[in-house]
Predict the 3D structure of the following.
Amino acid sequence: MAILNFLRSTVLSKIVMATTGVLLLLFIIGHLVGNLQIYLGPEPLNTYAQFLKSIGEILWVVRIVLFVSLILHIITSLYLSSINNAAKPVKYQVVNYAKAKINSRSMLVTGIMIFAFVTYHLLHFTFGITNPEDYAHHELTVKKAYVLPGNVSEEQLKSMPKDCFVEQNILTERHDVYKMVVLGFRNPFISLAYIVAVVLLGFHLSHAIKSCFHTLGVTGPKFTPWMERCSTIFSIIITLLYISIPISVLLGLVGGAV
Ligand code: HEM
């Protein structure tokens, strides 16, 4: 297959890993910003979720790009790790080789676990399959609409004075994402699963960002230690912000009214 021939070059594979990794990272940051709206209450979170659904085609384009990135990221990582495993250690490189091998193995293990988590997460919050009782909630919202009594043509509409329009309240139903998340995280086992998965994601991210800079050759005696520290701090912040959500629900700091 053409794609496999393309990925067979190690340099290209690393570029694919870095590019798809950056796209996935952007999603992780964006998703976090969206999720943090839970701290503002049900209205902002549900409005945000409703907005995402309303952009229809754009959302599907983003989903497809992310899905393709994820698949390419996984295939390429398996390929690179098979090359790494096949490499023979040279005597004087034993220490570095061993370290690289542990790193690439832990990346593979955390990567597989994150993939398993995302699969579970989609079944849980996106498709409502694992906990349908949490997913099933909807809330009614009132939307204002301006309508005209009777039928008018498009031409007449343009010249209509504003006071011809009658304000009406229209009841609409939307998915209660806030309630679903709160009910989901009230289960300590579910919260624990999310916390463990996000901590693994943090480790994965921290190493991935560092190796991305190495791959792109952006290194230097002063820059590399600084970049590695920033990458660790960044990953810790992302992890803490994500896990703060299940922890806040468990402690009753969020979702008290649900
Ligand atoms: C505390 C942590 C998290 C919370 C509260 C959370 C919340 C949610 C919710 C509510 C949805 C469904 C949105 C909807 O259909 O209206 C969702 C979808 C999703 N989440 Fe998360 N999430 C969390 C962590 C993560 C992490 C760490 C990842 C990735 C590693 C992730 C990846 C996804 C993906 C891929 C979707 C599907 C997006 C789509 O439908 O287009 N989530 N999440």
Remarks:
- Strands lie at 138-147, 166-175.
- The chain has a mean pLDDT of 88.
- The longest strand covers residues 138-147.
